[in-house]
Amino acid sequence: MLFVGWPTLRIMLRGLNLTSVSEVVGNSRYWRIVAFTIIQATLSTVATLALAIPTAWLIGTRNFVGRRLLTGLWSATFTLPTVVVGSAFLAILPTSVNRSLLAIVSAHVFFNVGMAARLIGDAWSRVTVSFDDIAATLGASPRAVTRMLLAGPLRKPLASTAGLVMTLSLTSFGVILMLGGPTRSTTETEIFRQATQQLALGRAAVLALIQLLIVSAVLAWTTSTRSTKTTGTAAHAVDRRRPVARAEQPIAVSICTAISVVVVLPLAMLFMRSIRDVDGHISLRTYQSLTSTRPGNGLLNAPIDAVATSLRAAAMAAVIAVVLTVATVAGTRGRLAAVIAGLPLAVSGAILGFGALIGFARPPFPWRSRWWLVPIMQGVVALPYAIRVLRPAVEDIDPRLAEAAATLGASPRSTWWRVQAPLLLRPFLSAAALATTVALGEFGVTSFLVRPKQETLPVAIATLSSRPGTLLLSQSAALAVILGILTMILVGLTSSVRRDS
Amino acid sequence: MSLNEVPLPDRQSGSLSVCDVSVQVADLTILNHANLLVATGEIVALTGSSGSGKSTLLRAIAGLVKLSTGTVMWDDIALHLLPTYQRQVGMVFQDRVLFGHLDVAQNIGFGLNYTNLPKPLHAKRIDELLQLVGLSGFGKRRVDTLSGGEAQRICLARALAPSPRLLLLDEPLSALDTATRAQLTTDIRSILKAERMTAIYVTHDLVEATEVADRVVTIDRVLRQG
């Protein structure tokens, strides 16, 4: 709690200062930034849902060859670090639009559409059987049934997903920093500029409070829409998806093609940029150039050094996150675990990073220049995700196993080591892999706290892409490809461990 | 190999006396001033209607629920003051509760780790119990490959392994089919007698109760001994 509570408290103390408040409130530029923050998030949510709803219909109610593979592929984008997404859209969009609202909204759609389609599709798969059949036997057309579903039993899952997409769009610091450029600021990127470039910590703190208020309002709304029951739920274990009818085939193919293009094209273009040298030829020269230092690129080390730095920090962060997770989950503090699990949505990485920047600058906690602050803060960011994996696994353990062990003479400690711990081994490994993934791609906290020569991969990617020059942009793309591959390996590891368990 | 060729883990003989035991959860009284005496080597069947508190009484004796009043004594040892793992009271649960990450032999041997039986003798004790429950050669099997009846036999063997002073069986056959129940009803009595076990057997089936037990006790909120 020290590493979340103290930075948040410092933001509040710093932000509740009359001079800083009047500086922000009295300046229309900041209101425009707040408005832009809300507008881009709203547009991103609408555009994401527009694509996600037909996709959800397809994956939630129809069975076709490759459904699982495509669903997995589409959802995988959600696990990519925001800077990889930013880099991918820098690679795909023409220069005229690559620092625009369109670029930001497109990147958010790419990032969230698979996840949103999966969430809505899951809800759809549970309601469709009873409603389809009942409505059809009463004479309703498929279109009328769909309208009825969206306005009825799917309303709450839709609203909940919309709230989640909106929250993620409000807090996608990496995407906005890379695609918004200096002219398209959101509240978070403005906090970054005020804090690190203008050293106006008071104004940054006020903006951080505004951001916290906006996100809290959206989260409160999302929570109020979240349903615990879905009307007309069919049996969970039974997959009653129907084959795609002949008449539905064109629309099914269109949806699959559109989503696959949205998901694959930016990544393919990112890869192409990484293997295209300054003369436009296909080669690995960009990757070779990552091993040497280059004055003026914003990095003191060779770009490739960021890989080792990132892996080291992420591994440490994962250890910290998993140890804290076990301590939180293994005890009887279920409510605390639930609160922590919800934290990353409420307090984003950028806000936490800014809080740490001002909170750990001087006594009683003068830790800002300590090398271990970045891994610890990354661990704190990864902690809720690790808890989300381990907590259900702990709760799933049949309490009668512990009772049986006790009647056989095992003390509570012995029961933990001999019965519960072996059952949690796979979820534990899965949580560790997920924590490493989150820490590896973490950009919000790290960008505020990183020290020279200790740049992580996301920081190096953002630094290179923010400087002019084709080589630097290609190097940024190459590092993004490396980070993307590392992330996919870890995500694959997480999924395979979870599937086996 | 004849039964009990392997020395049993230490077992204290004695008798159980449950005096004035009540169990309350929130404002609800689940067990109301129950009394019960069980002599050494005796098998007592507890019967009664659903919700009468049969299982709760077993859980109270095992220390799995807190007593609001009363005492549970083994001769002069106050079991109710000890945590479950120190009571030396074995239990067979209604649903087959086996450790999924351990094989059959490891399940049976689990409790032996907390007895004074030397490690080299554990394997022999496990073999002996497998033979006793009629599942010789099952030691390396994964528990999820067992049928319902086989799993419940392993649960019984596991509970017997550390040679507890008292064995509690909570409707151990209720989830099994009729044929398996009939077979196991006979087997359980002979297994318990072979191990000279003091036991309390909960069932709602009076026929099963009379077949397994030396004495049948009906519980109906206030425990009546028959």
The dominant shape of chain A is: globular
Structural class of chain A: mainly alpha
The chain-level structural class of chain B is alpha/beta
Distance between the first and last residues' Cα of chain A = 31 Å
**Estimated share of beta-strand residues of chain B:** 15-25%
Give me the count of strands of chain A: 2
The tally of helices of chain B reads 6
Oligomer designation: heterodimer
Helix segment tally of chain A = 23
Number of strands of chain B: 10
Q: Tell me the distance between the termini of chain B.
A: 39 Å
Describe the structure.
The complex is a heterodimer of chains A (501) and B (226). Chain A is built from 23 helices and two strands. Chain A is an all-alpha fold and 501 residues long. Chain A has a two-stranded parallel sheet. Chain A is globular and about 70 Å long. The model of chain A is unreliable at 229-237 (pLDDT under 50). With 226 residues, chain B is of the alpha/beta class. Chain B is 28% helix and 25% strand. Chain B has helices at 54-62, 104-109, 122-132, 148-160, 178-194, 206-212; strands at 16-25, 28-38, 43-47, 69-74, 77-78, 89-92, 166-170, 199-202, 215-220, 222-224. In chain B, the strands form two sheets. A six-stranded mixed beta sheet of chain B has the order 6-7-8-3-9-10, with helices on both faces. In chain B, strands 2-1-4-5 form a four-stranded antiparallel beta sheet, covered by helices on one side. In chain B, a hairpin with a 2-residue loop joins strand 1 (16-25) and strand 2. In chain B, helix 3 (122-132) packs across helix 4. Chain B starts with 15 loop residues before the first strand and ends with a strand. The model of chain B has no long low-confidence stretch (mean pLDDT 87). The interface between A and B is medium-sized, with 19 and 29 residues.
